[in-house]
Write a structure and sequence with these properties.
Layout lengths: L3 E11 L5 E10 L1 H12 L11 E3 L6 E7 L6 E3 L4 E4 L9 E11 L5 E10 L25 E9 L2 E10 L4
Length: about 170
């Protein structure tokens, strides 16, 4: 193991049968291990193409990662397929910041560290020239004047967008 040696100690270990044995151990400073893991977490890059509903989870040789959804995040959640499922802003809107929790395990040293990782979710890239939603409204005849309606869009049961519009009814 790599680390800053800070001393030696002698400990007594006892087996289940009661046999005792003294062993000498070296005591090392674990701080360099945690600094390395922290730098690895900071270096994680999320590849967001702006086209799909998922962002692949990054990998780093020598590390195992455990990802969890932040409970207060309304734009993303970690799915079982090794990716983050995202609620993207619409084409033309600004990117939004999201975050997930990650525990990084160094496979060589066995040390781990948990942190929150922030990343940006880019808006959809308008690849087909469209940007509209088509829908039909069936209203009864009670609407005679201008009315204001609210349309709320949900994606996988997560609120995505809200639009207001005013309709004039002509008979």
């Amino acid at each position: 193991m790599v680390g800053v040696k800070i001393g030696k100690a002698q400990v007594t270990v006892q087996s289940a049968s009661g046999l005792k044995k003294k062993i000498d151990i070296e005591v090392v400073d674990a701080e360099p291990y945690y600094q390395e893991i922290e730098e690895t977490i900071k270096s994680l890059k999320f590849e967001d193409d702006g086209k799909s509903d998922t962002i692949p989870l990054p990998t780093v040789d020598g590390y195992k990662f455990e990802w969890k959804t932040n409970t207060n995040d309304k734009y993303s959640y970690v799915n079982d397929g090794g990716a983050i499922t995202v609620i993207r802003p619409a084409y033309g809107e600004a990117s939004v910041e999201s975050s997930v929790k990650v525990t990084a395990y160094n496979e060589i040293t066995g040390y781990s560290l948990t942190s929150t990782v922030k990343f940006n979710i880019s808006p959809y890239i308008n690849t087909d020239g469209s940007g509209s939603v088509k829908c039909n409204f069936y209203l009864d005849n009670k609407y005679k004047d201008d009315e204001t309606f609210v349309i709320k869009f949900y994606k996988r049961a997560l609120f995505s967008k809200e639009f207001f519009f005013i309709c004039s009814f002509k008979c």
